[in-house]
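The material for today's practical consists of a large collection of protein records. There is nothing in a record beyond a sequence line and a structure line. Backbone structure tokens are a discrete shorthand for how the chain folds in space. Nothing more is needed to start thinking about how sequence determines fold. As an example, a complete record with its sequence and its structure tokens follows.
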Amino acid sequence: MTIKTLIVDDHEIVRFGIRSLFQTFDQLQIEVVGEADNGRTAVEMSRQEKPDVVIMDISLPDMNGIEATRQIRKSCPKTKVVVLSMHNGRRYVREMVQMGISGYVLKSSIFNDLQNAMLSAMNNQVYLSPKITQLVTEDYLALLNNPQRNESPLSGKQREILQLIAEGKSSKEIAAIMQIGVKAVESARHRIMDKLQIDNVADLTKYAIQEGLTSLDF
């Protein structure tokens, strides 16, 4: 079985390592159709290349892996997304699982889990690293006890803009990246602040980190 795959990670050495690992697979043939070092490029390449599987990191510049996955799942519904990340926080896992990912593999267990995750994805199944399975189970039980748990008050577009603000981008830079007007960015910034009841960039950045929109580690 040959699987057309897009690798998304902002570190070149990690992308190289994933390529090298693919060569050791004994049950799959992997054709790497492209690499992306940020979420926005990943979305564009997914639309162009129509890969079978996207290997997706979470902490990415310009657009994080969560938002990139949301857009890929919407525009390329046949493409499977397998998360490969160091992050195992509940918020990250919850959002990714809710979007219908096909796998969530921790980088610490990549050698044992990645091939199994990709096999599961191609069989329309979901593969989770053991630590992630535990978190999902605990989160499900918590949801049963608290069905009214709060969701994010921001839209997907507002979350994109918030990430870019938190990464220090100016309104002009955000407008260029998102291909919208500067006034639209300023208007969105004000709506975000109103919704979150936050009146300064420092607290917006703190909120973005807490929500998993950025980790500022790139």
In short: The first helix runs from residue 12 to 22. The longest strand covers residues 29-36. The chain has ten helices and six strands. The two ends are 35 Å apart (CA to CA).
